[in-house]
TrEMBL record:
GO terms for cellular component: plasma membrane. Keywords: Cell membrane, G-protein coupled receptor, Glycoprotein, Membrane, Phosphoprotein, Receptor, Transducer, Transmembrane, Transmembrane helix. Belongs to the chemokine-like receptor (CMKLR) family. The lineage of its organism: Eukaryota, Metazoa, Chordata, Craniata, Vertebrata. SUPFAM superfamilies: Family A G protein-coupled receptor-like. GO terms for biological process: inflammatory response; phospholipase C-activating G protein-coupled receptor signaling pathway; positive regulation of cytosolic calcium ion concentration. This is G-protein coupled receptors family 1 profile domain-containing protein. PANTHER family: CHEMOTACTIC RECEPTOR, G-PROTEIN COUPLED RECEPTORS FAMILY 1 PROFILE DOMAIN-CONTAINING PROTEIN-RELATED. Coiled coil: none annotated. The chain crosses the membrane at residues 26-51, 63-86, 106-128, 140-162, 194-216, 236-262, 282-301. It is found in: Cell membrane.
Length: 359
């Protein structure tokens, strides 16, 4: 997870530490500082808007609340990584090294899984018959969310196992630094750790998300109600933004995995290790941006409510996503009436026309 080592120590060779590249370290610290200042109050405001302003919370709102909690907690602990990059030495001890990176991974998985659940839920509402989608109640979704948090806590365990503090000698300045780095004793550990992180935290979720939106688009093309509802637009924007900011991080993961297939000391392995080491601080900091970007995204999406509702604009935006779900179900009912009337030779139904004008 963030600010991790670009190469794996304990495999019989020494490489650059995650804070050895001054330019990347300064840039990473700057990005994390901005992320902290925006992300912490932004996600707290989202959580407060949902808890204090919304009485009837839709499934989408519950998922957005959990996403804000995951992102907000991740933003809160960035202060430790800012200090790490600024001092260029780890001052928080072995236990904090393991715990903080474990929490980072937990919230990374939680964020993408919540976004995946949003996409699956929208697919169920839009694509599946009403008798199926109506069963996806808030009570069921709450159980799914609890199960999701339990799952992410389990699959983040490698961050506890493969993480530790070691001394790193800086020959140029004749000093010794403490660095919190991944500590894999075998090449197989490297491949398992980072392949799991990228597969479970990026590839598989995005495969599910893309499948959901393909099904949604196919469904919308078959119906006369082609207006894109607010929740589809908002969730799709969250998905795209998450992918853009996390893709560089997972590319570096795959470069580290690829490096382990080359013999130790080979030119290809040294090149991949160097790229990973020099890029980790920046790509990890970019990954953090996705967690502070959502409040900004919601603000732009709900700007039409700001003048009328003031600080309650975020609640009005999320209430709108709940209304979209109701509208989608109404549209399905109307479509069914339209098909029945057409079969009876009654021509375009008046009800359908009224519903189309209404929505």
């Amino acid at each position: 997870m963030p600010v991790s080592n670009g190469t794996e120590h304990g495999l019989g060779h020494k490489d650059d530490s995650p804070v050895s590249n001054d330019n990347a370290t300064v840039l990473g610290a700057l990005i994390l500082s901005l992320v902290f200042l925006v992300g912490v109050p932004g996600n707290l405001f989202i959580a407060w808007s949902i808890l204090a302003r919304i009485k009837q919370r839709s499934v989408t709102t519950l998922l957005i609340f959990n996403l804000a909690c995951a992102d907000g907690f991740l933003m809160a602990i960035t202060i430790f990584f800012i200090v790490y990059l600024a001092k260029q030495t780890w001052v928080f001890g072995e236990a904090m090294c393991k715990a903080l990176f474990y929490l980072c991974n937990t919230n990374m998985y939680a964020s993408i899984f919540m976004i995946t659940l949003m996409s699956v839920h929208r697919m169920v509402v839009v694509v599946l018959p009403r008798r199926v989608s109506s069963k996806v109640s808030r009570k069921i979704m709450k159980r799914v969310i609890v199960g999701t948090w339990a799952l992410v806590m389990v699959i983040s365990i490698p961050s506890l196992v493969f993480r530790g503090v070691r001394e790193d000698n800086d020959d140029g300045w004749n000093t010794t630094k403490l660095v919190c780095v991944a500590n894999h004793t075998l090449p197989q550990h490297v491949r398992f750790h980072y392949a799991l992180e990228t597969t479970a935290g990026f590839i598989l979720p995005y495969a599910v998300i893309i499948t959901c939106y393909v099904l949604i688009l196919r469904r919308l093309r078959k119906t006369q109600f082609r207006r894109k509802v607010r929740s589809e637009k908002l969730i799709l924007a969250i998905v795209v933004m998450f992918g853009l900011f996390w893709l560089p991080y997972h590319v570096i993961n795959m470069l580290q995995v690829a490096a382990q297939w080359y013999p130790e000391g080979s030119e290809a392995r040294e090149t991949l290790d160097k790229i990973s080491s020099n890029s980790r601080a920046v790509t990890s900091a970019l990954a953090f941006i996705s967690s502070c970007a959502n409040p900004i995204l919601y603000t732009f999406a709900g700007k039409s409510y700001i003048r009328q509702n003031g600080f309650a604009f975020m609640a009005r935006l999320f209430e709108g996503t709940s209304l979209d779900q109701t509208r989608t179900k109404k549209n399905k009912d109307t479509e069914g009436l339209s098909n029945a009337d057409s079969t009876n030779g009654a021509g375009p139904p008046l009800i359908s026309a009224k519903m189309a004008d209404k929505h």
